[in-house]
Amino acid sequence: MFQSHLGEIAALVTALCWTITAVAFESAGKRVGSISVNLIRLVIALLLISVFNLFTRGMMLPLDASGSTWFWLFISGTIGFVIGDLFLFQAFVLIGSRLSMLIMSAVPPIAAITGFIMMGERISLLGLTGMMLTICGIALVILTRNPENRMVKFSYPIKGLVYAFIGALGQAFGLVFSKFGMGSYNAFAATQIRIISAIIGFALVITITKNWKSVYSAVKDIQAMKYISIGSLFGPFIGVSLGLLAVQHAPTGIVSTITSITPILIIPMAIFIFKEKVLPREIFGAIITLGGVSLLFIK
Fold first, then answer.
1. CA gap 85, 164 in Å, rounded
2. pLDDT given for residue 185 in this prediction
3. In the predicted model, what is the mean pLDDT of residues 169-193?
4. What would the mean pLDDT of 199-223 be, rounded to a whole number?
5. What is the rounded radius of gyration, in angstroms, for the C-alpha atoms of the chain?
6. Where are the alpha helices (DSSP H) in the chain?
7. Fewest CB within 10 angstroms: 32, 73, 128, 222, which?
8. Among candidates 244, 277, 239, 284, which has minimal Cα distance to 22?
9. pTM for this prediction
10. Are the C-beta atoms of residues 102 and 263 closer than 8 Å to each other?
11. Which is nearest to 292 in space by CA: 115, 140, 156?
């Protein structure tokens, strides 16, 4: 049973990992800034995964990957990690990990539309219904009505919401390119290539924005480094690798659906750790979003 459902089990553990890493990186980002957190967590993740690959594959670097694999995974890492996570982590700081991860539930519908445009994949009527439910669930959380003039407005900073949505776009396109490049190649080695491309990308961003002093200050912050280390272990190392393992052994749609339960899992942590006041409509909106994502991939 374990072997026959390896992809689904890996996806479920991935969702748990995303919950832990989102909370950890939100805490770190609020202390030392999102760009510093991004680079440091990737360096830590690269060290962890290199040691892991040395013991499991006999090589610290993915030197056995073909040029094509390197190319597509490099693009995937740049889009998913650099562009996607750059905006997602800033969204963590502006609107919190709970709401950011809820908006990230838009990844499966975006991936489905991308598959339709790029590869001609069909979207069923049930799938379209799922997309509408997903959008409605997210809208229920982020929109509110002013009781005085009945005007609908955003209940959270628009800038943070836009950043989270750009993060969702980056993750969706990164997933598509990962599928292109990985094939049957080792999932942990594939993650290593994506991390290497992301480190290069963030190093360029930090150099251009002249933020290296912030990185040095972040490394000296012991509490922030604890959060970053926890997030790095469960995020770019275990979470991303298990996510790639999941899409190797199960359809991408099923994997996306299972991993999108993170907004539900993160609600208790937001209440107990960040002392957030979660409204009933926000819980209801998260459940509707999850239901919409699930419908999207029912055959």
1. 9
2. 87
3. 83
4. 93
5. 19
6. 6-32, 34-57, 67-77, 85-95, 97-103, 107-119, 125-142, 158-182, 187-209, 212-220, 222-232, 238-249, 252-259, 262-272, 280-296
7. 222
8. 239
9. 0.76
10. yes
11. 140
